[in-house]
Design a protein that fits this description.
The chain is α+β, with helices and mostly antiparallel strands. Helices cover 63% and strands 13% of the residues. The protein has one domain (3-150). Strands 1-2-3 form a three-stranded antiparallel sheet. The radius of gyration is 16 Å and the shape is globular. The two termini are 24 Å apart.
Amino acid sequence: MTRWFRGGILFAAAFVFAADRLTKYFIIKSLVLGQSIKVIPDIFHITLVFNDGAAFGVLRNCGPFFIIFSFAVIAFILLVVSRSPRLDRLTAMSLALILGGAAGNLIDRLQFGYVIDFLDFRVWPVFNIADSCITIGVALIACSIIFKRSG
């Protein structure tokens, strides 16, 4: 794997991280806790929530575990990216999404003791860009593994 390819993975992760941090900054400056703005009534709102659990509000009050787990995930991904002789593009993009998302939520936990969530689809727990990227990254890796085994 070339330096450019590794750099691309880190650049994509940095983009995810920046998008997550910027959106959270604007939300926290614009709304008060619990405030909700209707974007599409009864379907999609922007709602400020402080989440001390995992993605989508599961496993509440486990902050120290998530901090340690986030550091471990970030370290593992950086190790894989730096040591792997070859990664396919799908795996590389998946790792970038997870890395950027994990870093974004980790900063929230270290700075505030909770994660700032704001994307509210009303039928699903409130979440953020980092949660979305982590979920998409994990789903892509799972699909990649399944299709490689079956193909």
